[in-house]
Amino acid sequence: LLSWRFMRDVNVGIVGLGNVGSGSLTILTANSGEIARKLGFRLNVRGLCSRTIRTKSLPAGVGEVFTTTDWFELVTHPDIDIVAELVGGTTVAHQVVDEAIRHGKSVVTANKELMADCGLEIWSAASQAGVHLAFEASVCGGIPIHHVLRDGIAADRIQTLFGILNGTCNYILTEIERRQAKFDDVLREAQALGYAEADPTADVEGYDARSKLALLATLAFGQRTRVADIYTEGIRRISPEDFEYAAQLGYTIRLLCGARRSADGIRVSVRPALIPKDAILASVHGGYNAVWVRGAHGQDTFYYGKGAGPEPTGVAVVSDMMRLARDVRERRCQLSSPFAYQTLEPARILPIEDERKPWFLRFRVKDRPGIIAALATTLAEWAVSVDAVLQLPAKDKQNLPFVITVEAAPEHAIRAAVRKMGDYDFMADAPLALPMETGV
Amino acid sequence: LLSWRFMRDVNVGIVGLGNVGSGSLTILTANSGEIARKLGFRLNVRGLCSRTIRTKSLPAGVGEVFTTTDWFELVTHPDIDIVAELVGGTTVAHQVVDEAIRHGKSVVTANKELMADCGLEIWSAASQAGVHLAFEASVCGGIPIHHVLRDGIAADRIQTLFGILNGTCNYILTEIERRQAKFDDVLREAQALGYAEADPTADVEGYDARSKLALLATLAFGQRTRVADIYTEGIRRISPEDFEYAAQLGYTIRLLCGARRSADGIRVSVRPALIPKDAILASVHGGYNAVWVRGAHGQDTFYYGKGAGPEPTGVAVVSDMMRLARDVRERRCQLSSPFAYQTLEPARILPIEDERKPWFLRFRVKDRPGIIAALATTLAEWAVSVDAVLQLPAKDKQNLPFVITVEAAPEHAIRAAVRKMGDYDFMADAPLALPMETGV
Questions:
Q1: Which of A8, A108, B211, B273 has the fewest CB atoms within 10 Å, i.e. is most exposed?
Q2: What is the nearest CA distance from B232 to chain A, expressed in angstroms?
């Protein structure tokens, strides 16, 4: 028995051969020699399932593999040890994962929505069935951030995590900045180039980043964070002028995913924010993702890589398979939690409205005397102190952009003041309030 | 038996309570609750050994611990499962590790010299004894780069790795840049601040970085790379003018550790080099470390954090303990290699002299007509094409710095040309040749 355990290779099956599925398959075949040399045994592709499997050309060297259009056949196949669910969505994907677990297969998935919504229940089913679960690929394709949080810096007590978790938004924002282009124009181009989807809502409204942040916060703090807990704001209102004003202050703008822990609980948000130009997060351009972590002991660390793409995400899928393959062969008694903590607590979510930060308030007004006085008076009503007033030369006096920055103030005061300021008849547009994150 | 395995906590012993030892002990006590919640069992500090243990005040909450001045007592103590060797040096440290392994203890070490020199032999002894070995803390204190290479991006085939692996050199270089200060002055200040040692040789000559690169190259490529394989050049000759000229070209200068794999073998070097200002490695300032990796599949990823310090390095030590503690409880059959590959090949080291790169050549001359013509003629003799000649205003005509950049040329041609150019009687100082790394 012992020698059989030593000798035995591990077989994987892939359900779904879209971008991530084909990327994973490419790596499993092209890099099979290195993978075997790292593991000390082989990781074989044994089964492939896709609705369009008949039309797919499989890579050379894929070996002895069965193909099917029926996922149930794959997840119940006796030769398969590990199932990769790479279907996407939350309906069929959920069934695939559940049935795979029920049939004693360990599961790798790249599915952020599924894991953010039902990950804990799936992990509970997996641990009752004695099978392993991993989902590195669900967040920041090419960055091994799950491995880092679970193992690499496991000994640290994480206090703050900031991420740039959506490559589409980061591409759009850095293009607006680089070319002083308008949001709508850049979005259209991004769609034409395939960087943004036909329906861009999930990306530009921050929903995609929110699912990822829910998972990262859960792993970082051991508190189950749900998407509904996360204050979320998209990037549609960011304009080239905002970058110009931010630059004057030594800042840039990113869709910033933040998770902070205090003694009382955690605060989580996805929103466009100003970050200092010399912060390392500000060097994240285009379709890259990054995560910045501050721990009580290890201080700050930073992780950066491709946010998506078949092969970067495939590296995450196949690296998960490798780790699980070791565990499958060893028949571990204690399954190690994919959420970094063996037991999760319910999240104690604190309102972000109480946090004190400096703010960047951008207005578009129909110019006339007394505007600054009116706005400053309103801010004073909520005890908010003005830090600076910035106005770049502009032609259109009926739609004049300018910026007021204010000293650290609680968000509820800013929101109330902005609500009142929006009612002034000189406003050409609702004011835009962005927090200034000085601590990244 | 099964329930005993589930219930059992894991006991660690620490040999050496200097910076890293005390940092690790702080984390093990201050963060013990989180660590237990992550593991599902407790990681107890059971024994502490230090020559000066009598004078140490132990942190509150350290629990039931025995102290000793005799490392042999600790590594042979029947209660201890994992020994952390944090003595440093290669004499006693080697004995501690050998005896711990011989007595069936798993070992965590932060010792880069020991692991770079004898790591493979130690791992071989450990695997014969059926115990685990880990040395995350030996490279880039706060950055979990071992975990990343072993597990996080294990599925990738790494092609290139660039690192900033010595915090002292990085501090000195970025201070020279920031303040236009001289190397000797910055070094003296760094020594006064405790950032550099009284004898700075190991840092400023690149030897410390070289040990770290030997380990990283071994993990990245699965080829055993030794310090003697690595071309090494220190930073003593870098001057403020070099940064000024580099900035004119859109570059900065770092002590760059490089490891590149081709079909025929690997090339490894530690040397000051020009890197583009907009490369993410250029955003690494002060005492930080960073590693940039390019894989065949995952493309580029980047990892950044504190290079040293008691607690950042302690996070690496204790995270290693946590991983090993899981494996110790499970009594794994196949020990997983700390070198990322279960089997290492001997390194096929290729000469760096064959690599073609653009170069930055800085001269200090006694000014007179015909100098540029003489140098250009010499370069032409070795078929090296001049790209640009840069000369900033300077007062001292007897020691006039200026720069010639050349198009991509093999290093052996540059070295030969520079040797000849050094003989010209107008040279006030030996020419300085720095490669321009455009691909980071």
A1: A8
A2: 27
Q: Which of A232, A235, A247, A237 is nearest to A272 (CA)?
A: A235
d(CA A268, CA A256): 11
Name the catalytic one among B56, B105, B112, B212.
B212
Please report how many Cα atoms fall inside a 13 Å half-sphere around the Cα of residue B4, on the Cβ side.
2
The pair of three-digit structure tokens given for residue B371, joined into one six-digit string: 């100098």
Distances (CA, A) of A341 to A108, A120, A212, A260, A436: 18, 11, 17, 17, 32
Which candidate from A26, A142, A283 shows the least CB-CB separation from B283? A283
Q: Is B212 a catalytic residue?
A: yes
Mean pLDDT of B20-32: 97
* Cα A217-A222-A226 angle, rounded to 5 deg: 50
Measured at the alpha carbon of residue B240, what is the angle toward residues B237 and B245, in degrees to the nearest 5? 100
Q: What is the dihedral of CA A365, A367, A369, A375, to 10 degrees?
A: 10
CB contact under 8 A, B305 and A300: yes
* CB < 8 Å to B343, chain A: 37, 40
**CB-based contact A344:B34 (threshold 8 Å):** no
| Strands laid side by side in the A66-68 sheet | A66-68, A43-49, A10-15, A82-85, A106-109, A133-134
Interface list for A 146-165 with B (CB within 8 A) = 147-148, 151-157
User: Residue A226, SS3?
Assistant: coil
Picking from B2, B23, B303, the nearest residue to A303 by CB comes out as B303
Beta bridge partner(s), residue B432: B362
Q: Which helix (H) or strand (E) holds B215?
A: helix B207-221
DSSP B329-367: HHT-SSPPPTTSSSSPEEP-BPPGGG-EEEEEEEEEE--
Contact flag A155-B27 (C-beta cutoff 8 Å): yes
Residues A272-319 have pLDDT tens digits of 999 999 999 999 999 999 999 999 999 999 999 999 999 999 999 999
B222–A27 C-beta distance less than 8 A: no
Q: Taking the CB of residue B290, how many other CB atoms lie within 10 A of it?
A: 26
Among A212, A357, A366, A420, the active-site one is A212
What pLDDT digit, counting tens, does each position of B37-70 carry? 999 999 999 999 999 998 888 998 888 899 999 9
Closest CA relative to residue B350, chosen from B245, B437, B436, B221: B221
Closest partner CB to B298 (pick from A156, A295, A315) = A315
Nearest to A215 by CA among A146, A284, A125: A146
Are B263 and B273 in contact by the 8 Å Cβ rule? The answer is: no
Mean pLDDT score, A390-406: 92
- Give pTM, 2 decimals: 0.96
Q: Tell me how far apart the alpha carbons of residues B31 and B40 are, in angstroms, rounded to a whole number.
A: 14
pLDDT per position as a tens digit, B69-87:
999 999 999 999 999 999 9
B387 Cβ contact partners less than 8 Å away, ≥ 6 residues apart: B358, B404, B405, B406, B407
Query: Look-up: residue for tokens 């653009």?
Result: B358
**Inter-chain residue contact A305 with B300, CB threshold 8 Å:** yes
* Spatial contact of B369 and B433, defined as CB atoms under 8 Å apart: no
Cα gap B340→A186, rounded to integer Å? 43
> Crossing angle, helix A167-179 and helix A183-193, to 10 degrees?
130
Q: Which two tokens stand for residue A29?
A: 């075949």
